[in-house]
Design goal:
288 residues; alpha/beta; Rossmann fold; Ribonucleotide Reductase Protein R1, domain 1; five-stranded antiparallel beta sheet; 15 strands; 25% helix
């Protein structure tokens, strides 16, 4: 019995990556269907003595993402350009909440930083200060050694809008053209999709899952007992000091989070993302 990580799923054909980073085509028998559909990132065990490398066991997942479809993610690597297309703060904050909710660790790579060094530095300081590890990438003279060291031993999900530099980053990682990099549409202000399917690549001592570019992410409603504020790290040291245990940090009197906001201890723009996402989740729950 040998171990593999599902690399890609296409039309019922499963390609895995073995322990020596070799690719192997796998067959999923009917009994495996009880585990549900296999996803990129699934850890499986197969019988190499069979003609078609039959999967005989699927390891229990640590997490599962609906969009993009992937499993067992350790790090959520969010790539966002400083410009062309312009930085989308709300999408970033929404993605970090999504990552925290699914028990993964979000990190941020801000690309094309040389297009606006001042803003890039502000974002670097802001997100690092709330515990979201942030790196800067540039159009010229990129050096990703620090990121590679941070990702060592992990399964990493690479996400971000089209045109922000995901494929360019992936090409730099591999040293060859994994996905063809496209130009930005001047009319639309965003890139054309250059990645066609969710796929995983072994890179030194970590795995990187590339995903199709997307422009929206619908965060599902929170489970019973979950609170949106739990996924904003900068709120944590204040919320226990609120007058009410059920404080939403919006309109309640005696809210310590609002006091910290007023005192400049919490970023106004991050708080605006919180309000917008709170409203979005409330409306979604009411529809359900």
């Amino acid at each position: 019995m040998k171990k593999a990580v599902i690399k890609s799923v296409s039309g019922g054909i499963f390609t895995g990556i073995g322990e020596e980073h070799e690719e192997v085509v796998l067959h999923s028998p009917g009994k495996i269907k009880k585990f549900g559909k296999l996803l990129v990132g699934d850890i499986v065990y197969y019988d190499e003595s069979t003609e078609n490398n039959t999967i005989i066991e699927v390891a229990e997942r640590k997490n599962e993402f609906i969009r993009p479809k992937a499993a067992n993610i350790d790090v959520f690597l969010i790539v966002q350009s400083i410009d062309e297309p312009r930085f989308d703060r709300y999408l970033i904050d929404k993605l970090t909440v999504y990552a925290f909710k699914e028990k993964t660790h979000p990190i941020l790579l801000v690309t094309k930083a040389d297009l606006n060094e001042k803003l890039a530095e502000e974002l670097y300081n802001e997100y690092n200060s709330v515990g979201i590890k942030t790196f800067l990438g540039r159009i010229e003279n990129n050096n990703y050694d620090e990121i590679f060291e941070y990702l060592s031993g992990k399964i990493v999900l690479l996400v971000g809008n089209s045109g922000v530099g995901k494929s360019t980053f992936l090409n730099n990682v591999h040293g060859y053209d994994v996905q063809r990099t496209n130009f930005i549409s001047k009319k639309l202000g965003r890139g054309k999709h250059t990645t066609r399917q969710v796929e995983i690549f072994p890179i030194d001592d970590f795995y990187l899952i590339d995903t199709p570019g997307f422009s929206t992410l619908e965060l599902e409603t929170l489970d019973e007992g979950e609170r949106l504020a739990d996924y904003f790290p900068e709120f944590q040291k204040y919320k226990s000091e609120c007058r009410f245990n059920t404080c939403t940090h919006i309109n309640e009197p005696g809210c310590r989070v609002k006091e910290a906001l007023k005192d400049g201890e919490i970023c106004n723009l991050r708080y605006e993302s919180y309000l917008r996402l709170f409203k979005e989740l409330k409306e979604r729950k009411e529809k359900w």
